[in-house]
Every structure is written in structure tokens, then in C-alpha cells.
Amino acid sequence: MRTETLDTLDIDIDELVALRRDIHANPEIAFDEARTSELVAAKLRGWGIETHTGIGKTGVVGLLRGARGPGRTIALRADMDALPMEEEGRPLHRSMRQGVFHGCGHDGHTAVLLGVARHFSGRRDFTGTILLIFQPAEETGGGALAMLADGLLSRFPFDEIYALHNAPHFAPGTFGVRDGAMLASCDELKIRIVGVGGHGSSPEKTKDPVIAAAQLICALQTVVSRSTDPSAMAVLSIGSIHAGTTSNVIPSHAELLGTLRTFDETIRAQAKQRIETICAGMALTTECAIDVSFYGSSPATVNHREQAQAAARAAVGVFGPENVLRDFAPLNGSEDFSEFLLHKPGAYVLLGQGGVYCHHPEFDFNDDVLPLGVRFFVGLALARLAHQGDTA
């Protein structure tokens, strides 16, 4: 890690770490980020930053207007929500809320953006505006759309947008950004099977939804193995099966939950259609009613080339050229930051932190990389404000 990281940052690192750990200890799930939003808004207002709350229910927007007058607007986004899971690690700042846990590092992302706000609150010698977007509900895939539906683009127009996510699979002091696809699309799916229940000793008198579910799980594997071009990436996984309550009763209902991931919108549409076709065919075969629905959907996160290259240039000044990774495989995870990229150019980047992977029950954001994230965003924002591009 480069030791000169703090030299040009007007922030108190101890305060930033304390903020991050406070958010970690008080996690809130999607659209329930009331305390986190209040904390963010209070800090922004305390630093003299124009602050707007309630954007997309619990979202917060801060505007940092440069002292040199109007110009371009660069948006920086952080997600605030936690996961509905139990923390198994034992840090002193561990979650105080049962079944809720910052297992993906959004506490760190929020702290990074607060660090950017603190730095620029006293250093506004730039032209243009820096827009700070604190987004709710990334984990459920609804927060970005909620903010957009609440008029984010019309109320706070911007030219470009950037987001940062911790990357446990990259070492601390490293940084990653790709041109093009960074993350996969996401479609969660629910398959509801309704049959006719009965005694386990007389299956001929039933329409068994368990048998239908079992056959569906096998048949759905052909969506990828037999219906998708082998050169294209697609993943379809069934992660939950619910049916019945005891051993000798054939239930009347069964439910499957799964997830579909791709990098290509054509493949995505074909896979969803194929899932629907297989479910319809299985309904005929088993004489059960089968309904499939998709939810929690977001498109693939695809970086715009110019903005990805700009992010890489800014990262070189923070991490050194040898630690800026450009040639790596896109990730199968998904992000609703992709919804913003459908409207405005931008890039999604990765901040190396090491440790266990996101969503692991012992995950914790690496506080050592907080100043690196702040410095990256500060340098990137200044560089893009100075860039003579089109304005919104």
C-alpha cells in the first residue's frame, strides 16, 4: 500500500473509520436505511453541503458546487443497505441487530463517499458540481430504480456517474476496472407449482408437485447446457426448494427459487423464454399448474469505454500503474448500478481489500483501504470536472 495516501486528503481517518464501524454495528436492510440515511444527511449538512433526503424512499443526495462556477456535474454513488443474514465474525463493531449484517461492505462504500464529501466541503476550488448519491436497496435490486423513479435525473442532472465496490479477490492496494462488461445481469425467479395433495401411500390419487419440482430442476439445467451458445456466459441456479411438512403426505404446493445471470441481453431474453417454455411443458406432463415469475432484475453492468479509461488513469496516481488491473474476467455477481449506466455514461470499479469474499458470514470491510477509495474518487472527480466534454 502506498504510504503517501493521506497527504492531500482533508479528512480525519480515525473519524472515517469510526463512522464505518458505527454503520457496520447498526445495519439496515433494503429501504429500511432510516438511521443510516439520517447519519449521512447529518454529516453532509454539518459540513455545509446542500443535502436532499427521501430520494427513492431512503436515498440521500448531496451537492458540492465548485467555487469557480457552473460546469460539468460528476456523480459518485455509494450503496447503504445491509444483508438479511447473521454475522458470525467477532469484531468489536459487530452487528447489534439479529439477522442483519453488512456482509457486502456497503458500510465501507458509504464511509468512502462521506470521506469524499468531507474533503471537498473545505476544498471547492473547482468548476462544476460533484453529486454524491447515497443509494438504498442495492441488494434487492430496487434502489437505483426507486431513485430514478423519484426524478433523480431531472432533479439532479449529471454528465457521468461512477461507483466503487470492494474486491476481496484483489489484494489491498490494488484496483480493477474493465472496459465493457463488469458484472452480470440478474433475474431472480420464483416457480410456483400447484398440484393435488394426498396420502403418501396413494400417489395415484394425487398430482404430485414434488415430482414436478424435481423434474423441473433437472430440465432447467438444459437452459444453459443445451439452449445457450457455449461461447456465451450464462448461469442458472436453483437455490431454494420448499414443499411439504411431513414424510407421509404428498403436498399440494411446491416452490422453487433461483437466479439467472448473463452478460448479454439477447442471451438473457432467450434464457427467460426457455425457462417459461420448460415450465409450461412440465405443467402438461405432470398435470400441475406451474407459474414462473421474475423479480429483483437488473441488466448487466457494462462500463462505458471513455469513463473506464478515465477511472484507470485516476487510479494510477493512487495505486501505481503496476497495481491497476485491466485484464481480468467479468464477475458473475450483479449490481443495480447498471440501471444508471443505461441513462448516463460511467464506470463501476473495484477496490482491492483481501479477506473472505462478500456475503461470507465473517466478512468485514478492510478499513486500511478507506483512504485509498477516498483518494481515488477525489482524483477522478477533479479530472473529470476538468475534462471539456458535453454537459447535461
Automatic annotation (TrEMBL):
The keyword Manganese applies. GO terms for molecular function: hydrolase activity; metal ion binding. SUPFAM superfamilies: Bacterial exopeptidase dimerisation domain, Zn-dependent exopeptidases. The Mn(2+) ion enhances activity. The lineage of its organism: Bacteria, Pseudomonadati, Pseudomonadota, Betaproteobacteria, Burkholderiales. Belongs to the peptidase M20 family. It comes from Caballeronia terrestris. This is Peptidase M20D, amidohydrolase. Its cofactor is Mn(2+). Residues 189-280 form the Peptidase M20 dimerisation domain.
